[in-house]
Each structure stands twice: as structure tokens, then as C-alpha cells.
């Protein structure tokens, strides 16, 4: 994800073994010279040879030295004169093992053309499109996220959190490329996702809706990304704001989870619900509202809601629903499952209508994910396995059946 080193640097690195090889030859000549002089001082011919060897050696060593000098000099000249190469390309290790680009505010101001193209705003940030200046020809597009308020005012805490986000690297995650950490400005720089958010695809015009099979692939990719964050990442990350706006689609419509790791960077009161609760209304797990520990099962709950949205191509809450019973998607979906009318959920979707077994399987997984009791919800690993068909999906209980035991 970190851009390739500039071409001149690559040349220099390629030249290095060659130059080392040349200097070895010179050293070999040097050593031969000393040996000859010690061996025989009487022979004129040998004296003559020795002088020749000495002259050749001096010339060779001199030329090698000049070559090295020239290569180093041309590297520095090219590095400073080439307008495509500037300090943006120099990765800066924030934590061991990761290289994130460190930007100044001015550099990002330039990269976004003074924050001209506004991609959208959420509760705690505004996002702008940009182009990395050293790669104008090939255009490495970026999304620059301006964070409004942060919990960790300290430099070290911010860097630690950003480091954890940067270390997470999986094909189903939006990769963090770098950041800006100045007193007044905290910005995060991500890969640009050309196909927008899952929410805009699912709930936008019907012509933009991914078909049933693409939706299945999106559901599986998202589950895999969350499984990685929970169990495979070096620092475990609970997302805390899984929702269809935070699932973005890249050039090939691969789902990429965004905004993971942000929960820790935000101030406590930056929520849309009750103080202390992270996440977005409609997607938040019930334990946020009860005095219960928050675990990675909060993400499983939110994923279950997203899965229902993916199956039905509708928002988790619709005030304008045909029928009052259909307003809350999770209630309506469970009713349909319970009464054996899963088809009603996908009635306008021919491909899904012809694949009812799979629709039912996905619905059952979703119902497991939205169980009120977090311990009843499967892990994201199990969810992935059930969706991929490596383990069967047991009959799910009614989501609120165990509410009294909480
Ligand atoms: N890497 C990216 N590439 C392309 N578009 C992006 C990228 N990151 C965010 N966006 C877009 O920017 C917009 C704002 O994103 P942001 O994460 O700030 O808000 P949100 O996720 O919609 O809402 P919230 O802040 O409430 O979670 C969204 O419409 C999103 O699609
Ligand atoms: Mg977001």
C-alpha cells in the first residue's frame, strides 16, 4: 500500500550490487600487488609487471571510486530536482513493522485541491477526494478524512491508535495509507473506493443494485473482513460501527470495511444515541443499553442487521413501509421466517426467488447474529463458515427469547 520508491532510488539500489562487485575486483588487484612485491625483487620483468599492475590497480580503484561518487551524486541531484519526488513518498514508521505516510496539512490541502471534492460527511468527520501529488500520471486516488473531535489529544495515543489501524491489512478492509497529526488538524488518508458505499448501492436507484449473487459475495467478504479484525489481526479491533455506509466497494466491487479502529479515537459524547454508546441507531447491539461488557459480539449483531439489508435491499427501519409490521426489518424478517414466508422478503428479486434455499440460509444466519443474548450469537469465524457452507446452520431461536435472563 505504501507507494513504490522513486525510480532513481530503484536504479541506485540495482546499481549497488554492481558497484560492490567492481570494488571487490579493485581490492583483489590491491592484494595481488602486495604479494608480488614480497615474492621476488630481483627480476626486472616482474618489476615491470608489478608497476603495470600497480598502475592498473590505481586506475581501477580510482574509476570505481569515481563511479560510486557519480552514482551517489546523481541520486541526490535527481531526488531533489525531480518534481514527482518529494517527501510525501518517504514512509515514516509510526510503529514497528508498518510504514504509514506522514503528511503535513499543507500537503493534504494541495492533494485535495483545497478540499474541493467533498465525498460526504458523517457524525464525526468529513471526507474529500484527493490525488497523491507524486503519482499524478498514474493517479493514486485517495480519500482524506478530516476528523472533528478526538478522544486522545495526546500525540502518542493518537499515533498508537493510528498505528493499530495501519497494521490491519486484509483484502476486505479499506487500507489506511497515512495521516496528518498537527495541533489543529487530524486527518486520515485512505485508499479511494470508486464504487461508493453499500448503502448507496442497496438503497439507491434499483438500476444500481447488485444482483443476488453479487450480494451473497458482498455478505461473505464483509464477514471475512470482520473475522480478520476480531481474530486474525495482530491487535484485536472491535469495529463498533458496522453498518452499510461503512462497507465500501472497490473497483472490482469487493466489499471493504471502513472506519474500523475509529471508535477509540472518538470522544465519548460523539454518539447519536445515549452518551457512551458507540454505533448507529438501528445497528447497535442491546448490550450497549444495559450495564453489560461490550465485546466483539456487538459487531456480530450489527453485521446481522447489515445481512438482512443485503438480503432484502432495504434499510433496517422504514417509516413509510407498506405495513406497520414491516417498519422494523429485523421483526418483519423474523416473522416471515417463522411463518415460512421467506419469499415475501425478496418478492421483486427474480434471482433470489429462484434461490430460496440460499435466501433462507442467509436469513437464518442473520437471525443467529441478532440474538439479544450476545453469548448466543456466533463468532464472525462461525458466521463466515456458515455462509461459505463449511458448517451447517442450526435452526435459530426467536431473537428475544432469552431477554429475561439478561
Ligand atoms: N475510502 C473512501 N473512498 C471513497 N469514499 C469514501 C471513503 N471513505 C468514506 N467515503 C465516503 O465518504 C462519506 C462520508 O463517510 P463517513 O465515514 O465520514 O460517514 P458515514 O460512514 O456515512 O457516517 P458516520 O460518520 O455516521 O459513520 C460516505 O458517503 C462514504 O461513502
Ligand atoms: Mg464511515
From TrEMBL:
One of its GO terms (molecular function) is carbohydrate binding. Its main location: membrane. It is a single-pass type I membrane protein. InterPro entries: G-type_lectin_kinases/EP1-like, Kinase-like_dom_sf, Prot_kinase_dom, Protein_kinase_ATP_BS, Ser/Thr_kinase_AS. The chain crosses the membrane at residues 54-79. Residues 1-23 form the signal peptide. It is found in: Membrane. Residues 113-391 form the Protein kinase domain. ATP binds at residue 146. GO terms for cellular component: membrane. The keyword Phosphoprotein does not apply. Its EC number is 2.7.11.1. It catalyses: L-threonyl-[protein] + ATP = O-phospho-L-threonyl-[protein] + ADP + H(+); L-seryl-[protein] + ATP = O-phospho-L-seryl-[protein] + ADP + H(+). The keyword Lipid metabolism does not apply. Keywords: ATP-binding, Disulfide bond, EGF-like domain, Glycoprotein, Kinase, Lectin, Membrane, Nucleotide-binding, Receptor, Serine/threonine-protein kinase, Signal, Transferase, Transmembrane, Transmembrane helix. Coiled coil: none annotated. Belongs to the protein kinase superfamily. This is non-specific serine/threonine protein kinase.
Amino acid at each position: 500500500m505504501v507507494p513504490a520508491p522513486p525510480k532513481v532510488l530503484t536504479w541506485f539500489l540495482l546499481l549497488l550490487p554492481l558497484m560492490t562487485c567492481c570494488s571487490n575486483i579493485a581490492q583483489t588487484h590491491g592484494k595481488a600487488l602486495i604479494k608480488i612485491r614480497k615474492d621476488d625483487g630481483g627480476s626486472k620483468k616482474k618489476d615491470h609487471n608489478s608497476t603495470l599492475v600497480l598502475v592498473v590497480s590505481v586506475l581501477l580503484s580510482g574509476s570505481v571510486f569515481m563511479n560510486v561518487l557519480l552514482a551517489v551524486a546523481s541520486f541526490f541531484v535527481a531526488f531533489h530536482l525531480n518534481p514527482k519526488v518529494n517527501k510525501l513518498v518517504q514512509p515514516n514508521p509510526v510503529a514497528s513493522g508498518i510504514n504509514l505516510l506522514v503528511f503535513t496539512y499543507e500537503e493534504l490541502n494541495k492533494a485535495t485541491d483545497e478540499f474541493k471534492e467533498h465525498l460526504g460527511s458523517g457524525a464525526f468527520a468529513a471526507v474529500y477526494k484527493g490525488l497523491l501529488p507524486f503519482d499524478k500520471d498514474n493517479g493514486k486516488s485517495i480519500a482524506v478524512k478530516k476528523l472533528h473531535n478526538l478522544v486522545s489529544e495526546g500525540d502518542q495515543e493518537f499515533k498508537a491508535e493510528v498505528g493499530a489501524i495501519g497494521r490491519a491489512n486484509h483484502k476486505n478492509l479499506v487500507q489506511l495509507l497515512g495521516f496528518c497529526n498537527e495541533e489543529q488538524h487530524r486527518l486520515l488518508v485512505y485508499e479511494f473506493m470508486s464504487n461508493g458505499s453499500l448503502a448507496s448501492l442497496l438503497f439507491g436507484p434499483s438500476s444500481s443494485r447488485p444482483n443476488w449473487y453479487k450480494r451473497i459475495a458482498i455478505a461473505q467478504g464483509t464477514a471475512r473482513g470482520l473475522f480478520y479484525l476480531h481474530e486474525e489481526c495482530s491487535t484485536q479491533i472491535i469495529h463498533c460501527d458496522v453498518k452499510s455506509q461503512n462497507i465500501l466497494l472497490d473497483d472490482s466491487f469487493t466489499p471493504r470495511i471502513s472506519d474500523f479502529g475509529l471508535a477509540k479515537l472518538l470522544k465519548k459524547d460523539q454518539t447519536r444515541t445515549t452518551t457512551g454508546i458507540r454505533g448507529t441507531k438501528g445497528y447497535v447491539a442491546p448490550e450497549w443499553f444495559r450495564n453489560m461488557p461490550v465485546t466483539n459480539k456487538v459487531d456480530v449483531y450489527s453485521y446481522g442487521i447489515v445481512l438482512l439489508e443485503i438480503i432484502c435491499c432495504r434499510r433496517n427501519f422504514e417509516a413509510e413501509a407498506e405495513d406497520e409490521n414491516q417498519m422494523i426489518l429485523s421483526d418483519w424478517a423474523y416473522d416471515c421466517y417463522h411463518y415460512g414466508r421467506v419469499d415475501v422478503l425478496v418478492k421483486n428479486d427474480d434471482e433470489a426467488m429462484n434461490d430460496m434455499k440460499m435466501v433462507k440460509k442467509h436469513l437464518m444466519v442473520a437471525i443467529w447474529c441478532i440474538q439479544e443474548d450476545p453469548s448466543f450469537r456466533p463468532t464472525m469465524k462461525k458466521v463466515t463458515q456458515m455462509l461459505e457452507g463449511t458448517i451447517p446452520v442450526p435452526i435459530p431461536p426467536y431473537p428475544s427469547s432469552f431477554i429475561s435472563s439478561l
